[in-house]
Design brief:
Keywords: Glycosyltransferase, Transferase. The protein is α/β, with parallel strands linked by helices. The chain contains eleven helices and 14 strands. Helix 1 (17-27) links the parallel strand 1 and strand 2 (35-41).
Length: 340
């Protein structure tokens, strides 16, 4: 066990100078002896790169020739980073001095841990969990992801109810520590997604390959959120629905897809009708478009499926119930109530 393996802190940036000028001074104060900060610039059109060169010369800059989105942007950037671990970190976060050591210690304690994430609280209201990650990502038996501490639009107050280290199904791309060899073994994230679901797909494949995903509550970050797309935007709805159904298809065995995909289609039609009934026609339309593009993907050259396919029922971090049923029908809004 190496107490201080090297960590490459990788920040994917697109026109985020205003976030970088707040985050980078905090990273300079980390209480850890062996880390390097990298900014992977996704072809920004602001002066992010010039700002970094003039103000943070110790930061290593990886400049990409186009905006490749989250998945491919990180894949290209991380291919050039050779530290033992990658810390994937959003630019719209606030971090404390002791961010790294608890997560590194957890990873070093078990070589089968591929990823761990910290507790993610809201920057605007630090007593509450944040939408993207909260206290670790879970998934239900039908492929709908959610978090301990945040289910759909219900976000819990942090009262210490998730202060236990816990094996989960997925870790948030907002902030997570990744074992380099595991990331490269599964060839990183799936480029097609562009944004949303990419880290969940990656964690599904890591779970299927026999690795563990962990939640480390001793490390904490505060996340602003909505930096790429507002939470209620139609574009976010589109990517979430399209990429989620692709994720389920490409990671599930064929015999699971035979029953899962028709059921998911019916449930997503119900969601579209609910949006229509509430007057949100934009979200109704993009759910339809998401399925059109899913079927186009099935016939495209870009279609790729996971090398190892395992049903959710055989993996850790899976709720063996429908989260939609528990939340909307049984009115259980908190993870602790659902798993009682």
């Amino acid at each position: 066990m190496n107490p201080f393996p090297s960590v490459g802190i990788a920040i994917l940036n697109w026109n985020g100078r205003h976030f970088l000028q707040t985050l980078l001074p905090l990273l300079q104060q980390l209480n850890y002896p062996h880390y390097t900060v990298y900014v992977i610039d996704n072809h920004s059109t602001d002066d992010s790169v010039l700002f970094l060169k003039n103000n943070f010369p110790a930061v290593k800059i990886i400049v990409l020739d186009d905006n490749y989105g989250f998945a491919k942007g990180y894949n290209l950037g991380l291919a050039a980073i050779e530290e033992d671990y990658y810390l994937m970190l959003n630019s719209d976060v606030e971090v404390g001095k002791d961010l790294l050591q608890p997560m590194v210690a957890m990873m070093e304690s078990d070589p089968k841990i591929a990823i761990c994430q910290p507790k993610v609280l809201a920057l605007r209201n630090k007593e509450y969990f944040e939408h993207a990650g909260a206290a670790g990502g879970m998934i239900d038996i039908l492929g709908y992801p959610f978090c301990r501490g945040r289910i759909f639009d219900t976000v819990e107050k942090d009262d210490g109810q998730y202060n236990n280290a816990q094996q989960v199904f997925w870790a948030t791309g907002t902030c997570c520590l990744i074992r380099k060899e595991a990331y490269r073994q599964i060839q990183g994230m799936y480029n097609y997604y562009f944004m949303h679901m990419e880290e969940i797909d990656m964690c599904w494949r890591l779970n299927s390959a026999g690795y563990k995903i962990m939640y480390c509550p001793q490390s904490i970050v505060y996340h602003l959120g909505g930096g790429s797309l507002p939470y209620q935007s139609a574009a976010k709805t589109y990517y979430n629905f399209r990429n989620n159904i692709i994720m389920c298809y490409r990671n599930s065995p064929w015999y699971v897809n035979c029953w899962l995909l028709p059921l998911r289609f019916l449930m997503d039609v119900a969601a579209a009708l609910q949006f229509a009934a509430s007057g949100n026609s934009a979200n109704t339309k993009v759910i339809g478009r998401a399925y059109v593009h899913f079927f186009k993907w099935l016939l495209s050259k870009e279609k790729e499926t996971a090398t190892i396919k395992k049903s959710l029922s055989s993996l850790a971090g899976v709720l063996h119930k429908s989260i939609v049923w528990q939340y909307y029908v049984r009115k259980k809004k908190r993870y602790t109530d659902i798993v009682k």
